[in-house]
Structure formats: C-alpha cells, structure tokens
Amino acid sequence: MIIKSYGDMAQHMFLRSRNAELKQNIETLSGELASGKVANITSRLGGDFTYLSDIETTLARLESHMVATGEAKLFATGVQGSLERLQSNVIDMRDDVLALSTTMTATDAEQFADRGRLELENAISTFNSWSGGRSLFAGTATSTSPLNDGDTLMTDLVAEVSGLTTSADIIQAVKDWFAEPAGFGTVMYLGSTTDLSPVEVSDGERVSIGLRADDPDLKHSLQSFAIAALVGEASLGLTDEVKVEIGRAVGMELATSNEALIAKQADIGFIEGQLERVEARNTATETSLSIAKNKLVSADPYEVHTRLEEAQLQLESLYSVTARSAQLSLLRYMS
Q1: How far is residue 161's CA from residue 233's CA, in Å, rounded to a whole number?
Q2: Ramachandran region of residue 191, left (φ > 0), alpha (ψ -120 to 50) or beta?
Q3: Residue 70's closest CA among 280, 288, 265?
Q4: What is the enclosing helix (H) or strand (E) of 198?
Q5: For 267-310, how does the pLDDT look when each residue is reduced to its tens digit (9 = 90+)?
Q6: In terms of Cα–Cα distance, which of 218, 250, 94, 238 is closest to 158?
Q7: What global pTM score does this model have?
Q8: How far is residue 65's CA from residue 74's CA, in Å, rounded to a whole number?
C-alpha cells in the first residue's frame, strides 16, 4: 500500500494558494452581483464579439439620432408656437376690421392704424424668437435675430410711399417694397438667406425646418400690419377717404395673411408628426437592443448569489482546516 503525504511547506503553499483563489472568486462574484454583469465577457461570448459590437454601435448611433430628434422637436415646437401666436393676432384684427368694413370711418381706420403698429411690433418680436439658444427664423444664422426694429421698417416704408395719393398705389408700393431685395431684404432682414441643413433623425430619414423670416408667406403678416399702420402716419397727408379705403383693404390683406400662416403651420405640423413617429420608433428599437445586449452581458443574480455563498462556505472551511493544521504538534500527535 502506497501512502502519499505532503510536507508542511507544500501543505502551507497549497492552503495559501487555495485561499487566494477563493478570495479572488468571491471578489469577482461580488462584483457581478453588484453590477449585474458578468466579469468575463470573453468567456460568455466564446471570444466572438461581433454581435455585441454591432449592438453597441447601433445603440450609439440611435443615441445620437435621439438627441437630434429631441433638438429638432424643441425647434419645431418653438416655430409652431410662434406661428400660432402670430396667427391669433392676425385673426383677431382681421375679424374686427371686417366687422366694421361697411361702416368704417376715418376715425375707425386711424384706430386700426394704431393697432396695426402695435401688432407689427409684436410680429417682429415673434420672428425674433429664440428656442434652445437658437434663433428660430434666421436660417443658418442661428445666433442672430433676423429682423430689424419696427421704427426702421416704418421710416423706410413712409419714404417709399411718400407722394402717393391713392389707396391702390400706396398698397401696391408697400407690396413692392416687401417683395424687392432692396426693400425688406436689405432694410429689415438680418438673417441668413440659407436654410438650415436637414437633420438626420434616423437611418436614411431627415427632417428640414427651413422657415425664415423673409419667407413671402411670413412677410405677408408684417405687410398687412404695415399697411394698416400707414394710415396713422400724419406726414403722408392722407385724406379721410383714402384712410377708409386702406382700412377696408387691410381686412382682406389679413385674411390672406391668415391663409398663408395656416399653410406654414400645416408644414410644421407634418414635421412634428414625423418627429413623433421617429422618436417612438427609435425608442422601441433602443429598448429591444438594450434587452438583447443585457442577455449577452448580464449575470444571473440567482446563479451568482448561489456561487457566492458556495465560495464563502469553502473559504470558511479552508480557514477551519488551516486553523486545525496550525494547532498540530508532535506532542499532541503522540498523546
């Protein structure tokens, strides 16, 4: 019968090695239990990181798309809110003017002139709105308010129509000034003539919110208010008849302005709907990919807890064996 035995030094080294191994195992399992992820990803994936890498790349791209979508939504909401405020003012004044259209007097026209001047300032302020640190209607010049002040507009416009005596000529001159680059484009518009670049919100899908304050449909509201405000310019020397004619014409001009604003709101509304759909799709994709990633890298808490308890029990047993070995002596062996 062959009996194998180990010397004291060998036994000491074995116990020491096993102690270190169990401590390392406990540390690893504790980390997995705390983080919820396996410590050895390579072993879990069998050395093939292709699928995990593809998931992480897609998630990173989705994150950038979701950030872009959020910014685009904030911008679109700001634009839509500005258009709604402007349209509300246009509708209110349109309805009031049309209600007095058949009975309008020069005094009424002058009162609407004062209101038109006020609404002109409000409209300019609306087009100079900012959202998220960016100017909404200045094109690519997002750090610039796109419109000059109302006094500048009226001063140049009064000079443009000075000497004209009929309502038709005055109204046409105002329209020409707003349409010509040398008029509104030079005197009032301070923004960029380049639209904002489309924003990529998902793979192969972009949105463009290229609405500027020099857009003809947006300028029309300013034009309508400006026409009304001219009635109150004493330096023009307008007759009561011309004042009334201009006042009545303002009602139809504001009706056209309202139609133009509705069309722009519809465009922005379509973009908002598109962004909502993209955001929902991106969120769903992110959720499914995150679940797939978790299945690859997550540790089973029940399994980890069981293995951790087993390792702790083994370490306690090892300490007990080590203690007993340390108490051995020749005298105790012989007794």
Answers
A1: 11
A2: beta
A3: 280
A4: none
A5: 999 999 999 999 999 999 998 888 887 776 665 565 655 665 66
A6: 238
A7: 0.78
A8: 14
